[in-house]
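Reading a protein record of the kind used here takes only a little practice. The integers have meaning only within a learned vocabulary of local backbone shapes. With that in mind, consider the following protein and its fold in token form:
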Amino acid sequence: MSTTNSAPSDLRRAEQALQIPFGRLLAAVLAACATLGSAFALAAVSAYLVTRAWTMPPVLDLTVAVVMVRALGVSRGVFRWLERMLTHDLALRGVVSLRTNLFTALAARPDDALTRLRRGDLLARLGDDAQELGDHVIKAIVPGLVAVVMFVAVLATFAPCHGSQPSRCSRRCWSRACSHRSPHSAPHA
């Protein structure tokens, strides 16, 4: 019973023990958001390029889209590399801080509780636990924050397009897909 109730607070205490600097965390999250943003933009621009090229316009009409596809393809890889570097740097710095604090706290203990354990077992336990917390930063904290930021970005992008009145983003398709009409009614002219 106490394990279930104390698990979130234990995780919070462990995360605080990593001493993650906010600026580095923000940089890692922004780099990951830039990776996802450039991947989304790459998909959108390449879809536009394919559909526009299908109509066989003059080649010069497509040059901007072609250059954007190339730039977004390169930027996606660069942002992904930057995100990985920043996230792993953040996790490794947190693990170093955690291990330093743990060993300092263990060295200051006056009791004999630690003498009952073999030194190798204690070091293996501390090292493995610290590494798992570092992996927690890479696999849970940063991706969770990226998901929140991207969710807000998507809402901010598409929220102006939602509503009962035609807006500038959906003026063309609003008359065909109005949510207030029944699917069997005639389309607007």
